Amino acid sequence: MRIVETGYQKEKTEFFGSKFCIGNGYYGYRGTLEEYTKDQLVACTLSEIFDDSGNGWREPVNVPNGLKCTLLCDGEELSVLTKEPVEHEQALDLKGGFHERRSVFVSKSGKRIEIKTERFASLKDLHLLVMKYAVIVDEKAELVWKSHFDCDIWDINGPHFYEQKQGEIHGIDVVASTTIQNKKKAAVGQFAVIREGEGKLLRENGEITVTSVLEKGKTLEIVKYVSVCKETDCVLPEVAAADICLDASEKGYQYWREEQEKLWKERYEHLGIEIIGDEEAQLAVYYSCYLLLCSAPFHTDTVAIPARGLSGQVYKGAMFWDTEIYMLPMFAFCEPEVARNLMNYRVKNLAGALKKAAEYDYQGAFFPWESQENGEDGCTHYNLTDIFTGRKMRTYFRDKQIHISADVVYGLWKYMMITGDYSLLFEGGAETILECARFFYSYSYYKKGKHRYEFLDVTGADEYHERINNDAYTNYMIDLSLKTALHVIEYLKKENPAYFEELLKKIDFPDAEQIIGEMAVELYLPQPNADGVIEQFDGYFKEEDLTIEELYSRIIKPNEYLGSPTGLAVHTQILKQADVVLLLSLLGDQFSSEIKEKNWKYYEPRTEHGSSLSTCIYALLAAQIGMTDWAYKYLMRAGRIDLDGDYKLYLGDLYIGGTHPAANGGTWMVTVQGFGGLTPLEEGVSIIPHLPEKWTQLSYCFYYGTGRYRVSITSEKITLEPLEGEHILKVTTETGTYTCKPTEKLEILRGDTK
Amino acid sequence: MRIVETGYQKEKTEFFGSKFCIGNGYYGYRGTLEEYTKDQLVACTLSEIFDDSGNGWREPVNVPNGLKCTLLCDGEELSVLTKEPVEHEQALDLKGGFHERRSVFVSKSGKRIEIKTERFASLKDLHLLVMKYAVIVDEKAELVWKSHFDCDIWDINGPHFYEQKQGEIHGIDVVASTTIQNKKKAAVGQFAVIREGEGKLLRENGEITVTSVLEKGKTLEIVKYVSVCKETDCVLPEVAAADICLDASEKGYQYWREEQEKLWKERYEHLGIEIIGDEEAQLAVYYSCYLLLCSAPFHTDTVAIPARGLSGQVYKGAMFWDTEIYMLPMFAFCEPEVARNLMNYRVKNLAGALKKAAEYDYQGAFFPWESQENGEDGCTHYNLTDIFTGRKMRTYFRDKQIHISADVVYGLWKYMMITGDYSLLFEGGAETILECARFFYSYSYYKKGKHRYEFLDVTGADEYHERINNDAYTNYMIDLSLKTALHVIEYLKKENPAYFEELLKKIDFPDAEQIIGEMAVELYLPQPNADGVIEQFDGYFKEEDLTIEELYSRIIKPNEYLGSPTGLAVHTQILKQADVVLLLSLLGDQFSSEIKEKNWKYYEPRTEHGSSLSTCIYALLAAQIGMTDWAYKYLMRAGRIDLDGDYKLYLGDLYIGGTHPAANGGTWMVTVQGFGGLTPLEEGVSIIPHLPEKWTQLSYCFYYGTGRYRVSITSEKITLEPLEGEHILKVTTETGTYTCKPTEKLEILRGDTK
Questions:
Q1: Could you read off the pLDDT of A395-413 as tens digits, one per residue?
Q2: What's the topology of domain B277-685?
Q3: Nearest CA to CA, how far is A442 from chain B (Å)?
Q4: Domain A280-313+637-754 belongs to what topology?
Q5: In this complex, is the C-beta atom of B572 within 8 Å of any C-beta atom belonging to chain A?
Q6: What does the pLDDT look like over A519-551, one tens digit per residue?
Q7: Buried b (16+ CB within 10 A) or exposed e, A307-322
Q8: Nearest CA distance, B445 vs chain A (angstrom)
Q9: Nearest by CB to B441, which of A391, A449, A570?
């Protein structure tokens, strides 16, 4: 599957940088062209290394660009920045995460020069970035190709390196950079070879020059190996960078390319998605999964997935609640090792969450809103700028979105439910869950006259309404996290009472069970009103009820932030994103289809989708209740967001461009959990599909417990094929509950239920 | 005592309109000149009649101006609006509330014409407004004086009359106006006579013309009687308006003037303030009391005193918490009948407070933030405009300043304590107090881990910080109101158990005593920290700590509102006004002098005094703890506010000019309760004075119970002289507790305590 854009579209430089990005979880590399510089937002963004330069926010660092190169033909530079190409194409071949570029220039002297490049972020060696650069001429021409580290780095809040040392190690050019805040070191190495064609390669002062007098119809092909090394996994990053370039060039381009295809193929097989009858949807889903996998930490549990993946530094490279709610499901079902890393990232950073709670005079664990590599909150109290006054605005993302701790517990619970891996509980998971419950107890207030616990002054999923009371999403998610804590207590008491005793002592929480139990019973859960609608928060229905068009008509300045403290949506019923609808899709077993539909229909026209976390959830719930037309419409908005670039680029004056992992993960959720109807249960799964009309068949694969399965759904039947493991799976469908044995394909006729 | 301004100061037109205003509680008349129109903010503002024209806020109405007149000399108009006077003086003689004006013009032909006017708002007949207009010429001149109703009324949110009918009744010109919203009628009558000098008076179509050929050195003196009648007390306002003019003219100018002086003299005698050694302070105090008395409802309990008195329509003519906290003390001690009216106004409007609480889903009585004549809240949810965007801002004055209900209870408690009049309890007072307690219960939340009731999401006295938790002022005032409720319960159970039973049944609050009792025990009262400072609200100490100058340096637009939602002070420690310091001065018996001083010194440099309610409280507490230099400095700021015009004229684009009754009442408080040390106790009073150095003697009068007393304080002794009644008064001073018998002067030597 290929994503292609034809013709040079200068105005889409920023967008294509995200759309065509590549990455391997260790780093991301934006989909920029080889001649680009910081002005075109070139970035090789690292995971795991963050820096606060003192010029703004703490954010992930970008390293020097090792792919920068220019081509001269008969002394004339061939660059889209200075010359319009006569043909141009940029593409992404999902098969191996190959970024492709093809440009044809006509030189002043009328020669036709074709440039073809291919690059990929190696999965085989995560430090490796490989590029092939080919030139073909229609007349003999003198070519000069130059490449060097571009150390003039694009940063949002940089520069982040207090020094950049360039030198040579083992005959390889290396630049070693050291961050300002924590003196973390990253190194980039470069090495080039001529793979085809006659030419002379010269290395001097870090610059590689290839000169060639190329005959008509001949190809000059250069391969450039760039290594990216960090001290997080390399003792001496600069030495490692050199060694990796040497190793890479020894194995050669073909080796790395084949390995790349093989490893991506494995990933795609784990997804196993096949949509018969709808190639467009198939592409959107695969592209979404591709983007998400590009940023996934297969190699570490010290970071999760940033809100813009590794497509740049936006949102401080921080991990939000999206990880648990939007991304975890795909990984838990298809790449459980990554899911474990993601959850371990939270568990290992419990200390930061305890510290944050204490900072606000609460007890227990209050997870960061914008979590970085150290488990501290990258979110500031002044997170936005008022575009009317230029003043920083006090925002409450950091201190009031307490649902984050419930989301983490939800993630742990989902992870355990799907993988059957309870070992995390004994490695900090149980402690995390209990500390989250303790946090909620300390945050709660008891309303005496009404005999209930309430959660006041919070911000829910919909960020346009800050500091509200009894947010439905928040309260229900807290309820789930309390119940999870009680399950865990029960589990530990049964499985390892000594450990449980020890734990309670360690965290000094002897009355945990009693306190959590009482609160779980008396927690206020807003119920549907007479119209079946759950009020998003106390007083929401009293806010101004208007159309989104009417709201837009009040905008007086472009990019106005619509949320708190004074945005246009604040005192209206307009939502930024799915909120009650999110709740109903996550905790689906607690609500009837009728309630789900009523809420969907109430909130949908009031949702502005000002967050990329929104459309996929509208699709998901619609799919789950069989509103397949609506679901399909929203699936395509979610699944195509990074293909079409139909998202907000600015909040006030804050640039928020990049890819959208939550929407990417959400797209998988809609496909598999929505249309495909896959839901994990305490024991086994349920598969209650609702396929869009044109999908004649949907297949997908998933892990559950120790088994792996392929599901195929048509209007007639559901076929469940065990692929791995000895697991005996209980499956509930529209027609009953079945057992799938390890070696037998199970076919379930669907009857009239479609 | 006279207030004088010499020379015509055009730029002070607005300010002098307030500074020189007159009034009698029935109406107020701004200190404008006779030739002025709406452009110079002429206003005759009524109490008791409010209107919402649909053009903005509900506000008191202004009636047509009956004093408008112009003078022509030899055909040339003599008006400060068109001609610079060669001499000019505007004055207020406090003796009788006489507004005086003297202007000398030199005509084109070189003649010197002197105009002298005097006007007053009659206390004898509250409907009456009387003016004397005299002209003297230095050469024979032809004069034409014209006067008519100026029906082109200055309104902030008007016009408020859907019709204005002009006509003649009993030979008197009358204009009858009917409001838009409630069809309330008010009428103004006019009648003029020549009192001195030769002239011809002609009445035609509502215009009165006096023509005179005046000889050199002679005086032409015209008296104009204007009547103001409302349907609140006149069955047919237009007929009453005519009758009053007739009656007035029959009795004649001298009669009304003498009565006026006599009645003001009585009022001043009730105050009895004499400051020997400081005429400036004496003047400031008397002027403050004058202004407050001008707006006081001696005649009715259907309104209290608006936040800008009767000096115009600002702040919607609404009654705020200032009434109880800042104004009531002077009335309770000096005009107890007015104090009863003020408290009755609240008690009678309990229904409005119950309704407001229900509107926000609370129980009990939530008194209006901006109370108008009907007990409904004139305050809107969008009370200010953002001057950067022109958009209305959601403000929380209305819904979060819950301390208003505690302030009302405080007022009732003070009133009863000072007057000994508990009869109000049986006329709605007890019900009001219990319903306020019920409101607080329903608003409170219980913090389980901390075993305490808290008050969340409130706004305290300092309005720059909205929506905060556990505001010290609020919590302590609620504590007082709960304890008052318990006292009242105890009192009723003892004095009239049947009534108490009945009352609980009527208001369906059988467990009142238990609920209020429990809450009073467990209510959270923020305690002084290690430095002895009480934190204004949860988290206040964490806010940015900067100087006021630094704050001001951040202002980018004149009249920026500094408060919520996004004003510059919001996330700083800068206060609008005395808050904790107010608490410490109101509930002084609960705190040591040391704590008071420490808090005063902490908060004083952080207080911007952006409210006229601030400086007097800083003066009061400073005086009470003997910081007399500071107290004096702040007394003069409070006492001279309306003399000097040193106050904010705008909040954003909202005009807030006028007189400042709270500061006026506060000035009395500082003088008598601060320097004079008078404090009401459960039984008797304490008098612990701290005189400023230059005050060699301070005297004042007060009622207590059924007695009236004069106190004189020197550095050597306190003399207490009973003036009225059979009361035996217990008096506590620095040196001990004494008994003052009805007929004996009590002299207490002060010892070394100064």
A1: 999 999 999 999 999 999 9
A2: Glycosyltransferase (1.50.10)
A3: 7
A4: Maltose phosphorylase, domain 3 (2.60.420)
A5: no
A6: 999 999 999 999 999 999 999 999 999 999 999
A7: bbbbbbbbbbbbbbbb
A8: 5
A9: A449
